[in-house]
Specification:
Blueprint (H helix, E strand, L loop, with lengths): L1 H18 L20 E7 L2 H6 L5 E12 L7 E11 L2 E14 L20 E7 L12 E9 L5 E6 L2 E6 L2 E9 L6 E7 L5 H8 L15
Antiparallel strand pairs: 1-2, 1-10, 2-3, 3-4, 4-5, 5-6, 6-7, 7-10, 8-9
Length: about 220
């Protein structure tokens, strides 16, 4: 029920922005990525062996976020912020991937009943991202939700704060149709990522944008 409430909020905000692009207000992520078609940014965090030794309950070895703006397309004016996430956990070198869409909302961290959505997020407003259960790389478009997360600007223009809920539906590159329910404990829900060169997001971008063979008839491959 929490995801459905958040989905309604994201849809309503997205619809308003796309219908009334001039009404878009500045928000904290504008310091990290310019809100313009074609702009992108890459952020990552890699934990060394000493950190993992001191935090034995943390499963995350590395986490990378790719943010990109695209035109809404068709007859709809406006831009859309996409997010993609790559996660590597202990004991498995194969990355897990998630893709979604985000919007800024002054009450991002509240559901329709006024309850806090992500307890580790200390603010009300933020960029709330609805994740899909699988990347949009198949001929048939899936509307299945994969969970949600909240993003915010860090202490400077090169830091992205990422706040996760207790789970996400993610996939691996080898079989992007296989939905994996990834659980997050208390040590794997808040991350501080730093801006890096876009080359660090190349594998992540490829994993969530390269179409499956049958999907090439539906849409072209995205280009940088």
């Amino acid at each position: 029920m929490r995801i459905s409430a958040l989905a309604r909020r994201v849809f309503a905000v997205s619809l308003f922005i796309l219908i009334s692009p001039n009404a878009r207000a500045a928000n904290p992520l504008d310091d990290l990525i310019e809100p313009a078609d074609g702009k992108s940014a890459c952020f990552t965090r890699v934990y060394d062996a000493e950190h993992l030794r001191r935090h034995p309950k943390q499963k995350t070895v590395s986490i990378t976020v790719w943010l990109s703006y695209e035109a809404a397309g068709g007859k709809i004016q406006g831009i859309v912020l996409h997010d993609a996430l790559a996660l590597v956990q202990r004991g498995d070198p194969a990355a897990l991937y998630s893709e979604g869409g985000c919007d800024f909302d002054a009450k991002a961290n509240r559901d329709t009943s006024g309850n806090r959505l992500i307890k580790t997020y200390p603010k009300e407003g933020g960029h709330v991202c609805m994740q899909s259960a699988q990347p949009d790389v198949f001929f048939a478009v899936s509307a299945e939700e994969g969970g949600f997360l909240i993003m915010d600007r860090g202490k400077d223009r090169d830091i992205l704060m990422l706040y996760l809920d207790d789970s996400l539906t993610m996939v691996k590159r080898a079989d992007r149709s296989n939905h994996i329910d990834v659980k997050f404990g208390a040590d794997d829900r808040v991350f501080m990522l730093r801006r890096v060169d876009m080359k660090a997001c190349a594998a992540l971008e490829e994993a969530v944008t390269t179409p499956e063979p049958d999907a090439r008839r539906r849409r072209p491959v995205r280009t940088p």
